[in-house]
Fold this protein.
Amino acid sequence: MTVERIGVVGCGQMGGGIAQVCALAEYPVVVMEQTPDLLHRGLARIDAQLGRDVEKGKLSADQRQAAMARISGTTDLSSLSECDLVVEAVVENLDEKRRIFAALDRIVKPDAILASNTSSVCIMEIAAATERRDRVAGMHFFNPVPVMPVVEVVKTIVTSDDAIDQICAVADKLHKTVVLAKDTPGFIVNLLLVPYLLDAIRALEGGVASRDDIDTAMKLGCGLPMGPLTLADFIGLDTLLYIGDVLLNEFHQEKYAAPPLLRRMVIAGMVGRKSGKGFYEYTR
Ligand code: 3HC
């Protein structure tokens, strides 16, 4: 089996980005959303993004049209039955992911591969909801998917080498560099990134420096594209808190403990760019 058709569950920021890069790499893609409205908005976001690439001369109008033509949208999971690889990119909730994987397991071909774009949920727990545990893995993209050039490929203690090889071959076609990680909390990037972001919030909370100076110091002092508070807003403070809690529950180390300010901002609905307000304000 080689991967010829890709399914994506979820057409939000991450799922839409994954569908977009797969379509640009000439894979037929079936993308599933819960409601017609969410699907319509997700597909419109992909089309708008491709339109910006046309304006910049990175893509021709024909390439944009061809990419959109390769993407078919659905609200019915069973439309993914012919996909050889399905990438799930829904909300970070173990029960929801297990429900989707159990359903996909009954729908797709026996040798199809199921991958999760999760940033923090244990892949083995998701795989255990299926009868094909050796064909379940992590395929963790980074936001914004069309721009960030790396994918973490996560192998559980039972994922087959063949499934990993197939995922790596797809990532290669998407022009993404693969890094291999074990199924341990936070994989590579979030294991290292999340304590840094939590420490930046602790520095703000502790009055070390102002919001802007913390961001400027790290951006200019370390040559980063974004300061940590801007990046926390970009990722979503709810997502950051969720990953921090997963790491804390697994490792019981203080460095993963969410600062009180973060928890309170999430309770207040100030979850960053997507809500219009986090450490900064955004016009949506
Ligand atoms: N989708 C597609 N392309 C986008 C984009 C998006 N959402 N946002 C920006 N871009 C493109 C722009 O079109 C532009 O392309 P060009 O150079 O060909 O014109 C390029 O990215 C640069 O964009 P801008 O000039 O508008 O702005 P910046 O130079 O500030 O770059 C950025 C924006 C690429 C987001 C940059 O600030 C960056 O790399 N930030 C860090 C992002 C990061 O660390 N992501 C990882 C987060 S962690 C994660 O995702 C894991 C999860 O599990 C938590």
Observations:
- The CA atoms of residues 134 and 158 lie 5 Å apart.
- The domain at 6-182 is CATH 3.40.50.720 (Rossmann fold).
- The chain has a mean pLDDT of 97.
- The pocket of 3-hydroxybutanoyl-coenzyme A is lined by residues 49, 56, 58, 119, 142-144, 146-148, 190, 225-226, 231, 235, 239 (CB under 6 Å).
